[in-house]
Write a structure and sequence with these properties.
Blueprint: H1 8-16, H2 21-33, H3 35-44, H4 47-54, H5 61-71, H6 90-109, H7 112-137, H8 142-168
Length: 169
């Protein structure tokens, strides 16, 4: 059995409210701090204790409590809270710079920046190789071919339009 810091008889006397006021205050202060004793005391409460307290609670207790809650004016919550600008003093600015320097040094010592540089170099090489492959597959005279194909399409369009006009007559 766990030590309850008070004897079982003292707990029973406290439950029955048959002890001196000084000891009552001492036990209540202890209950506020000691979770084990609080658990022990709550386990002492049984069905008969609940029945005894029912006579002390008024029948309209719940309705009265709900009415009091509803009568309270609701707290207005603003849509947006405007941030207040705080003027920075030299100590704050110095603290920000020191923090940034410490973070930078930590990242540098951990090799984060080195790995970022290595990855960016790798990505630039991959991009360069892909662009070279694309350039090798594209015809060097693509602009001339585009012009010729466009001209052919316009001629065919004009010829078809003339044929449609002749057929309509």
């Amino acid at each position: 059995m766990k030590q309850m810091h008070f004897s079982p008889d003292e707990w029973q006397d406290y439950k029955r409210n048959t002890i001196e006021p000084e000891l009552t205050a001492e036990i209540e202060a202890h209950l506020a701090l000691c979770e084990n004793c609080r658990e022990y005391f709550l386990n002492l409460i049984d069905e008969t204790d609940f029945e005894k307290t029912q006579d002390k609670i008024p029948l309209d207790f719940t309705d009265t409590l709900i009415n009091k809650i509803n009568q309270r004016t609701p707290t207005v919550i603003p849509d947006k809270i405007k941030p207040t600008k705080r003027k920075l003093n030299r100590r704050d600015i110095f603290a920000y710079y020191v923090t940034a320097a410490v973070i930078t040094l930590a990242l540098m010592s951990g090799g984060v920046f080195d790995s970022m540089v290595a990855k960016s170099m790798h990505l630039s090489q991959v991009c360069m190789l892909k662009s070279q492959r694309i350039e090798s597959t594209v015809n060097k005279d693509w602009d001339r071919q585009l012009m010729e194909n466009s001209t052919k399409m316009i001629r065919n369009f004009s010829i078809n339009k003339e044929r449609n006009v002749k057929d309509a007559k």
